[in-house]
Amino acid sequence: MIGEVTGIRRIRMLYLQLLYRCNFECLHCFHGERLQHADAFALDEAISLMTLMRDDYGTEAVTLLGGEPFVYKHLGDVVRYAKQELGQQVEICTNGYRIERRLIEIAPHVDLLRVSLEGIGSTNDHIRRKGSYQSALDALELAQTLGVHTGATMTVTSRNITEVLPLARTLQDLGVEQLKLHCLRPVGNAAAHPELLITDTAAYARLRDHLQSAELAIEVIVDEDLSEHGAPEICAPEGGPREIERIEADPRGALTMSCKAVGKDSHAFWYDKDADRILHRPSSTDELTLAVPDVVYAHV
After folding, report:
1. Residue 232 pLDDT > 90, yes or no?
2. Structurally, how many domains does the chain consist of?
3. Phi, then psi, of 257 in degrees rounded to 5
4. How far apart are CA 277 and CA 49, in angstroms?
5. pTM here?
6. Rg (CA), the chain
7. In terms of residue numbers, what domain contains 89?
8. For position 189, which CATH number holds?
9. 204-207: which pairs have CB atoms within 8 A and are 24 or more residues apart?
C-alpha cells in the first residue's frame, strides 16, 4: 500500500516501538501521556510486521524501542527472530537502566546498543531519572565486553547544550563508537517544558564549531535542525523518492515516515495487526498531505 500511494519501493529500516510503557518519565519524551497507555505489540504482531516489511519493502534492519524495550517481556524472542529468521541488523535504543541480565541473554543477536543520555551526571539525571547516568555508562561498558557495538543518543536542550562536548569525550574514553544528536521538538512531555527549547539558535553554530575543533575520535552525527538557520531544503527526485531510510511503527500500529511527524499523529498509513496488512488512512493533517520533510543528518 505504501508503494502504491507514494511510489516508495524500499524502506531500509523499521523503527519498531514495541510498547509505550517505560520506567522513566523524561522531561522531553515525545510520547507524553502515552507513556501510561497499555498499547503494545504482541509477539506474533511484531514478528508479522517485521516479516512484512522485509518481504514487501526489502527492509534489512530493525531498531527496537519503546517506551523502554527492555521492559517488554518478549524482547528476547523479537531479537532472536529478527536476527536468526529474518537476517536483520538489530539495534536497540534504550535508557540502559538496570538492563544487565537481559542484555547478557540477547547480546549474541544484537548488532548495536544505543543508550540515551542527556548530559553529564546530575544534568542527565534531572532530565531522565536519578541514578540513570551511571546505569547507562555501566550498560555501555557491559555491552562492549559482550562484543556488542555501542552508541549513544542525546536530545540537545537549553539545559545540556554545554555538556555535549564533555559527554562526547566521556563516551569516547569508554570506547563508544557513535553519538547521535537530536533537535528537541515541542511534542509530548516537551510541550509542557518550553524552558528546554533553545531560543538563541546561534548556540547551535557555537556547538558545531566546538565539536569540529575538538577533533574527536567518536563519530558524531547531527540533526541538521541543530543549526542557526535550520535544516536545508531537500528536493526529492521528480515523482518522489523510490527509497527511504526508515519508517516508524508505534504500539497502536500507526506508521510514520518522517521523524518530524513522529509524536504528532500525522501518520498516513496504519498497520492493521489483525489483518497483517498496511492501510492508507489519509487526512488533512497527515505527513503526506502536509509534505512534512524528514530529518536530515550529517557528520560533524
Report:
1. no
2. 1
3. -95, -30
4. 8
5. 0.94
6. 19
7. 2-299
8. 3.20.20.70
9. 204/156, 204/228, 207/156, 207/161, 207/164, 207/165
